[in-house]
Structures are given as C-alpha cells and as structure tokens.
Amino acid sequence: MATKTVLTSADLEEIRQSALGAANPLGVAADVADAVESGRLEDPQDAGQALTLAAEIAESRSKLDAALRYADGAIEAYGNRDDNQVATTRAVRARILFRAGRDDEALAEIEALRPQLTVHPDAAAFITAALVVGKRSRQAEEWLTEAVKLAFAERAAADQSSEPASADDAGTLFFLLQQRHRLRHALGLQHDHNDNLAERLETRLANAGAAPAAAAADVDLVFWPKPEFDRLLEKWPALSEQYGADWDEHRARLEKELVRLTATGRTGLAVLPGKVDDLDKQGDPTDAATRSAYVDTLAASPSQIPWPPERNGACWCGSGLKYKKDCLPRSRA
User: Fold this and answer.
1) Which domain holds residue 67?
2) pTM of structure
3) 221 and 207 in one domain?
4) Cβ atoms 185, 235 nearer than 8 A
5) Alpha carbons 145 and 27: distance in angstroms, whole number
6) Cα four-point dihedral sign 273, 228, 103, 173
7) How far is it, in rounded angstroms, from Cα 233 to Cα 244?
8) Rounded to the nearest 5 degrees, what angle is found at the Cα of 83, between the Cα atoms of 186 and 118?
9) Position 101 in a domain
10) What does the alpha-carbon distance between residue 78 and residue 152 come to, in Å, rounded to a whole number?
11) 83-124 confidence digits (pLDDT tens)
C-alpha cells in the first residue's frame, strides 16, 4: 500500500494482509516503523502491534537483525503492559533469536513465557511455533500438557465440571486443548482423552455455526505458487501426497478445502503462500512436525491471501485469470 501520513488500526490490518505481496515489503516494514518513531500512528497504543508487524515482515525476508530490532522496539513500546499482545511479541522475538542461531537467548526468552500459557493462552500458537523453530517440539508438547493440567485444576477449584460442555464453557482451556491437539497430531502421537476432548469441542463449535476462536491454518491451506510448487516436488517428490501431483490438483485441493471449511461456519479464510527455501530452513520437510511449524510461521505472518475473491476479480492463485474462470470451478470438479 502507498505510504500514508497517518496510519490507522485498519491500515495496519491491511498491511498485515498485503505486505508480502508488495513490490518492496521491507520498505513497507520500514515505513511502519517510521510511523511509530515519527508519531504517525492515529492511535499511539498501536505502536507495539505496528513494530511487531514490522518484525514479522523482516523475519519473513530473513532480515533477522532488522526483525530483532523491530521486536525489541515493540516490547519497549508496550512498557509495563502484561497482556496477550506482549506475550505474542516476546514469542515472535524468541522465534527470531532461534532463527539467528542465538539459542541461549531464545531459550531465556521463551522460558520466561511458559507461565503465560495459562494466563494468555491466545499466545500459545506463537510460543509453540518458537519452540518448534528451535527444534524443541517435544518440549512444546510437554509445556502444553502441563498447562492443560493446570487449567483443569483451576476449573476443579472453581467447582466447575471436569469436562467442559462447549468451547465457551471451556474458556481459556479451549485454546490450550486446540494447540496441544494440533502439535501432537503433527508429532504423530496417539490420541489421548484430551485430544478427543479437543475434537469434540471443535465439532460442537462448528455445529453451532461459529468459527473456532483460535483456529490455526491447516497444512492443506499452504499455497505453493506455480514456480515454488515445481521446485517443491522436484526437491521432495514424496510431498505430492500432501500437496497434489501437479499444480492443478494442488489448487483444486485448496479450493475444495476452503469450501468445506466455509460450510462448517469458518470465516476469515485465507491461503498461505509458501516458499521452498523458507520451508527448507525449518528442517526436514517430509517430517509432519516440520511442516506444522512452517504453517504456524505462515499463519503468524502478513503473507496471507484472503479467500474468496470476487467472482470477477483476479483469482487467488495468481494465474491472472478471473476467479470464476479459474479456481472457483475446481471445487466442483
């Protein structure tokens, strides 16, 4: 988007959705940071959020020094605040440190966040993603399991039933159960009673016509543009099972999954453009945990492509054709 004299909260959300599609995303990040420094934010309380956004954009382009500088600025902007946004930014900072090979500093940051899992469970996905990037998926699973136990203990102390009847009844426990369930699935662990509970609560929420409040993107929603898709299967042919045997099948799978999710009541859907080089940095791409960590990274980045486009608008796949002439019919094939 073009540089504006004043950036509103809505502008920041637009940037989150579109920055990586800009001709110069790092320039967008720099402009967001400058808006903070020069007082060009309509609401000064958005400073921490704006700098966190700049950090994520820089991280997505592997400009880790700049990403860390922005993240540090965001934490400073938050001041004495202690809420979900602060915990999320600190988790982003830890993730950047892991990527930069500064594991000791990353661990110090992430260890301090462990108690936040039960206080600010919305940040659980970012804390988990940081640990997975640091090749500590098992540690993340242990933390989430302990946090779930603590949440159940708090329910018992408040004389609530041991098993919540709905996502609303579960409250913060729902976020933890979801994140733990996704991670254990990625690790290939056998379902336990808490995994089964997470699935029951998600099903009840979907049947009630509501979108899961903390739903993370499925791996099926990672979108590989044509050149990236060709590189992906050339490098790892086995991934055709996850992403399709050719680009047409890949796009058809995505369109059908997006239609299915819409039917369950999900809103605000988007596809997550992937890059082979970025996936390769995560670890072994044939490992489900590696792909799950990459999904978490993409879901927390501003690279999402909103779905669906207008029927007569450009198709989300970037083919240049109208949506109604390209991917829309694929859901019916």
Assistant:
1) 1-81
2) 0.67
3) no
4) no
5) 41
6) positive
7) 9
8) 45
9) no
10) 31
11) 889 999 999 999 999 999 999 999 999 999 999 998 887 788
